[in-house]
Amino acid sequence: MDKYTVTNIKVGNLMSDAQVGNIAIPEIQRPFVWKRAKVRDLIDSLYNNYPVGYIITWKSPDVKIKDGQTSNGRLILIDGQQRITALSTALNKIEIVTDSYKKERIVISFNPTTQEFKVRDKSTERGKEWITDIADAMDAGRKFINAYLKLNCIEDDDKADEISDSIEKLKAIKNADVGNITLDANLPIDVVTEIFIRINDAGVKLSQADFTMSKIAIYERTAGDEYGMYLRKYIDYFCELAAAPENLSQIQSNDANFADSVYWDRAKWIAGDNNEVYMPTYNDILRVVSLVEFNRGKLGDLVALLSGRDFEERTYKKEIEEASFTKLESGIDKYTRKSNFEHFIQDVLFNLGLKDVGLNVSQNAINYAYAMYLRNKNLGVADTKLKSLIRRLFIISLLTDRHSGSFESQWTSDFQKMQSADSLEELVNTLERQNFTNIFWTDTLPSRFDNTNTNASCWILYTLSQKYLGSQSFLTSTLVRDMKTAQVHHIFPKAYLQKNGYADKNLYNKLANYVYLHDQVNNKIDDNAPMVYMTEICKFDGAYGNEMKTQDDLDRNLNENAIPVEIMEGTASGYIEFLKKRVLLMSLRIKEYYEAQ
C-alpha cells in the first residue's frame, strides 16, 4: 500500500478547493501565527517561481452508508493552513484571526517598477508607484493597467510594457504550482503523525490530538452544517477561555454565529473560573472524553471511531461514525459542565491539597482521575463515596506511575472494567491489595526518595500530605499550606555538607534533606550543623527566629515534618543514617495521608 501520493495543485485551485470545502481546513494552528513579513515573503516567492514547500492532506476513509453505497471521504488539511490563510488574506481579501481573537486583513503592496513587495504601510498608501493592495490586481484587465500607467505618467512604450508584464506576472501567482502530499486514508494516526514529522522541516510539532481535532472539524451531519467545526470550537474556546478569560468578548464578537449556539453557553462560564491547578488543553479534553464515552485510551482509536471504523469487520460505516459523534458531543458536555468541573476541582484536587501551581503534578494523572470521576458519576456512585475513591485512586496513580509509560493500554483496561456502581471500589481495593503491602510502605516507597528530583511523584505526594494534614513548616507554627511561596531548604545545610565531605550535589540535595522552612529562619541558621542549631532551638528563646516554645511544640513540629530525633545530634558523620531514617518517616506520612481520604 502506498502511504502517500504527490501531485501539484494551482494556487487558485487550492484556494477555491479550500473555500468550497473540497479540502477541509480544520484550523489546526489557529489563530493565524505568521508574521506579516512572512506573508509578504510567500507572495514574493510565488512571484519569482521559488519553491514554497508542500501542503499535506489526509484523505478521510470512504464510509458505507445504509443503502450499501459508499460516501467518499474528504481531504483534511493537516499542514499548510498558514500558507493557505496567508494567500487568502493577501489575494482574496479574507480576514485572519489574530492571537487576541481580533479579525483583520494582512494587505500586501506591490511596486511594478521595482517588482518589490511590502506589507502595506503609509508609504505604500501614499506612493502612487505602489499597487496598495495586490488583491485589487488579481482580476485586473487592461483598464486597471492603463489607470496605473496614467497615474504614474508613464508614456514610454517600453516602460509601459515592462509595467504591464510585471502586473500580468503578479496575476499569474494564482497559476503557480504548489506541491500536495496526500496521505492514504487507511493509515493509522500514529503513522500519519510520524510521516508528518519526517516530511515537515519547519519545526512544527503536531500531536495525535491535533489530528483528532482535524477529524472532528470536518464532520457534517448534513451538507454545510459545520457540526464538527462547532464541536471543534466548543473544545477550543473552552480551553482558550480557561487560560485567557480576557479574550471572551473578542471571541464572542468575532464569531457571532458560534456565540449564538448552545455550545457557547456551555463553554463561556470557564472564563470566570479562578482555578489554576487544572488548565485543560484540547488534548486533555479528548483524552478524558475518549475514556468516558468510548473506553479507549488511545486517541488513534478515537479517530478511527469518528471515521466510522468497525473494528470487527475492518470496514468504515456511516452509522458508527454518526453514533461516535453523538457520544463525542455527550462527552464534551460532561467534561465542560460547570457542576462536574468545579466539584472535581474543589472536592477532589483541592481536598487532596492541590490548590496551587507550585507542584508539577502530571496532567495525565489528573485527566485519568477526572475521567474516572465522570464515568462513575454517570454509573450512579454516591457522591461522597465517589470523591473519596477518586482521591485514593489519584494517589495510587501517582505512587504506581499508572499515568506514565504505556498508560493508554492500562487506561483502556481500567475503563472497560467500569460496568456498575461497584466497579470503582473493586478496582481501588484490588490496586490497594496488589501494591500497598507493608513492604511497599517500609521499603519500596522509601527507596524512591533516594534522588534529588523535586518533580518526583514521591516528593509531590509528601508535599501534598504536608498540606492536607495541616503540618507546620520546620521550626515555625506557619502551616505548609499557608506558605505563599515554596520555601524549601536543607536540613543539613548545603555549605556545611560541602565542607565536610559531601561536595557532590547528588548527595547534599537528597530529597530527604529537604524541608519546608521560612527563608529568614534558614538564613539565620546559615551553615551550622543540625546539632549546633538544634541545641540553640532547645533553649526555647526564639533562636534563629524559630517559634518553638516548649519541648512538646518541638516534638510535634519534628513529627509533622517527618524528622527523626537523630537531628538533635546531627553531624556530617551521621548524615547518611539520618537520610535512611527520614525516608521511612516521609513514606509513613504519605500512608497517613492516603488513609485519611
Protein topology:
Elements: E1 4-10, H1 11-20, E2 23-24, H2 36-47, E3 54-59, E4 63-64, E5 70-71, E6 75-79, H3 81-91, E7 96-97, E8 103-104, E9 108-111, E10 116-119, H4 122-126, H5 142-151, H6 157-171, E11 177-183, H7 189-199, H8 208-217, H9 227-243, H10 248-254, H11 256-259, H12 262-267, H13 282-294, H14 299-306, E12 309-310, E13 315-316, H15 318-336, H16 338-349, H17 363-378, H18 383-400, H19 407-416, H20 423-435, H21 438-448, H22 457-468, E14 488-490, H23 494-499, H24 505-508, E15 514-516, H25 519-525, H26 530-537, H27 551-560, H28 575-595
Report what the structure shows.
The chain is an alpha+beta fold and 597 residues long. The chain has three domains: 4-199, no CATH class; 220-435, no CATH class; 444-595, no CATH class. The strands form six sheets. Strands 1-11-3-6-2 form a five-stranded mixed beta sheet, sandwiched between helices. Strands 4-5 form a two-stranded antiparallel ribbon.
Keywords:
elongated; 3 domains; 597 residues
Separation of termini?
Answer: 54 Å
Question: How many domain units?
Answer: 3
**Strand fraction band?**
5-15%
The side-by-side strand order for the widest beta sheet comes to 1-11-3-6-2
Summarize the structure in short.
The protein is an alpha+beta fold and 597 residues long.
